[in-house]
Predict the 3D structure of the following.
Amino acid sequence: MEGTNPVNKKLAAALSGGAVLVLALTGCGNGDDNDKLDSWAKQVCDAVQPQAKKIESANAAIQKETSDNSTPEEVQTTDSKAFQDMSDAYKAMGAAVRKAGAPDVEDGEKKQKDAVRELDSLSSAYASLRKQVDALDTKDQAKFADGLKDIAAELNKLSKTGSNALKALEEGDVGQAMAKQASCQSASASASPTAS
C-alpha cells in the first residue's frame, strides 16, 4: 500500500464521525401520544431518511476509495463528489426542518431555528471541503497527502462540533415522537451500526 493510503485512512476515520451527526435527527425511546408532535416528527423523519442514506453512501464511497490503492486523481474525484453530496444532504435536511416549522414543545421555535442554522452551516462546511479537495495538486503526491491531512483535521472538527443544536431539538418529547416513526428508525440504522 503505497502513496496516499495512510492519509486516506485518516480521512475515512474522520468521515465516519460525520455520520454521527445524522443520528442527532433520529430519536430513541417511546412516549405519550401527541398527534401534533407525531405528525411533525413524521414530516421531518420522512424528509431526513433519504438524506441520511445519501450521507451514508458518500461515506461509503470515501471508505471504499481509501481501502483501494487509488490514484490521487481517483481520490480527488470521489471525495469531491462525496463532499458535494453531503453538502446537498445537510442543506435538504435544514430545509425539511425549516418547512416542518417549530415542534409543539417548550422552546420549540428556538430549537428548530438552532437546528436549521446548524444544518445549513454543516452544508456550507462540506461545500468548502469540496473546494479544498478540488484545489489539491494531484500531480504532487506529497503535497496531495498534506492537503488530505488538513481536510481530515477539518472533518474531525466537524464531527465533534456539529450536532449540539440537533441534539437539543430531539430531546424529550420530540425525540420520543421521532422514535415512533419508521423512517427515523431506518435513518438511524443506516447512519450507524451502533444506533440505539
Notes: The radius of gyration is 18 Å.
